């Protein structure tokens, strides 16, 4: 986490959390979701504006974390901006040299490979569970055919429990009693 973010958290400790304003799609893209977009529907059906500003994306990715309830967020100064996930908290990018990188650019070590009923491939890594990017499925198939990965079956319904994450912090926040 950036030092400036830590300083802001110490200076303003009671800033309310923000829900619904940021989304991560199944290709590792970030989306800003204003009131109008949120009113139009849940993520990812109503995505919002694709973030393209590299420095903003880098800032979000450096300050991306999760809480003890498995809800992923971006620590924006003193405020937690919870992230709506289309799929998983991590999107893996496979490299021709065999490395696996997260959508944030961090290298990871694959520990387990999972395949859901629709043919989507997931890796459990030292960072957690994530979806293999759809553009990297040929490289993934090479790993499976070479015996590097042996996919185990998983149902899409089990993924959040398997990976200990919440796809929609906004929906889970609304379910809490007032």
Summarize the structure.
By secondary structure, this protein is α+β, with helices and mostly antiparallel strands.
Question: What topology emerges from the helices and strands here?
Answer:
Elements: H1 3-11, E1 18-24, E2 30-32, H2 35-40, E3 49-50, H3 54-62, E4 64-66, E5 72-76, E6 79-85, E7 90-94, E8 100-102, E9 107-108, E10 110-115, E11 121-125, E12 129-132, H4 137-145, E13 152-153, H5 159-163, H6 169-174
Parallel strand pairs: 1-6, 7-12, 10-13
Antiparallel strand pairs: 1-2, 2-3, 4-5, 5-6, 7-8, 8-9, 10-11, 11-12
Structure keywords:
alpha+beta, globular, six-stranded mixed sheet, 6 helices, seven-stranded mixed sheet
Multimeric state = single chain
Structural class, from helix and strand content?
alpha+beta
Overall geometry? globular
Radius of gyration: 17 Å
Biggest beta sheet summary: 7 strands, mixed
**Average pLDDT:** 93
The proportion of residues in beta strands is 25-35%
Characterization of this structure:
The chain is of the alpha+beta class. The strands form two sheets. It has a seven-stranded mixed sheet. Strands 3-2-1-6-5-4 form a six-stranded mixed sheet. The mean pLDDT is 93.
């Amino acid at each position: 986490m950036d030092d400036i973010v830590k300083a802001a958290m110490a200076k303003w400790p009671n800033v309310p959390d923000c829900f619904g304003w940021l989304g991560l799609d199944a290709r590792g893209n970030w989306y800003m979701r204003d009131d109008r977009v949120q009113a139009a529907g849940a993520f990812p059906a109503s995505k919002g504006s694709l973030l393209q500003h590299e420095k903003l994306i880098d800032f979000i990715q450096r300050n991306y974390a999760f809480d003890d309830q498995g809800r992923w967020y971006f620590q924006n100064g003193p405020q937690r901006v919870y992230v709506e996930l289309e799929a998983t908290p991590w999107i893996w990018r496979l490299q021709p040299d065999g490395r696996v990188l997260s959508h944030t650019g961090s290298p990871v070590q694959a520990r387990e490979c999972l395949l859901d009923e629709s043919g989507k491939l997931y890796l459990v890594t030292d960072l957690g569970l994530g979806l293999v990017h759809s553009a990297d499925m040929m490289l993934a198939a090479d790993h499976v055919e070479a015996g590097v990965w042996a996919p185990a079956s998983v149902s899409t319904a089990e993924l959040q429990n398997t990976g200990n994450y919440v796809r929609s912090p906004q929906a889970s926040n609304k379910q809490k009693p007032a």
